[in-house]
Specification:
By secondary structure, the protein is mainly α. It has helices at 6-16, 24-28, 34-43, 51-54, 63-72, 84-95. The chain has one domain. Helices cover 52% and strands 0% of the residues. The structure holds protoporphyrin IX containing FE (HEM). Protoporphyrin IX containing FE binds next to helix 3 and helix 5.
């Protein structure tokens, strides 16, 4: 983390210490690119911009399934793989009870 600006390091530390309550609209939705992520998955029946769909915990296409796929690099197909801060943000959002 040595090369990151101080503000980015502080924001990441806050995230890891869970001093922030993450929200789908503010913190999670922006992790998905309009194209290709949202566009391609919508065509396959999963709307990644839809809180109700993404916040289903155990369903296929639900939060834990998405977490597993971005964590192991299966999604997004074509890359780039999500960075650790992206995966951790998604995981903490789940742990905090998936707030809208
Ligand atoms: C969690 C449930 C998900 C399921 C079941 C799923 C399933 C699929 C399937 C079946 C395909 C088509 C594969 C193919 O045509 O070879 C696909 C493509 C794709 N998915 Fe997902 N996906 C999921 C989540 C995601 C997420 C979270 C992202 C983004 C972060 C994502 C991004 C993409 C992209 C970019 C493609 C490429 C489509 C293309 O280039 O044609 N998917 N997904």
């Amino acid at each position: 983390m040595a090369d990151l600006p101080d503000a980015a390091v502080m924001a990441f530390e806050e995230l890891l210490e869970e001093r922030t309550t993450l929200s789908f609209e503010r913190d999670i939705k922006p992790l998905f690119r309009a194209d290709p992520d949202v566009a391609h998955m919508e065509a396959r029946g999963l709307d990644l911009t839809d809180f109700a769909q993404v916040s289903r915990l155990r369903a296929i296409g639900g939060a834990l399934d998405i977490f597993r796929r971005v964590e192991n690099g299966n999604m997004p197909i074509g890359g780039p793989q999500w960075t650790a801060p992206m995966v951790i943000t998604f995981g903490i959002w789940i742990k905090q009870g998936m707030k809208p």
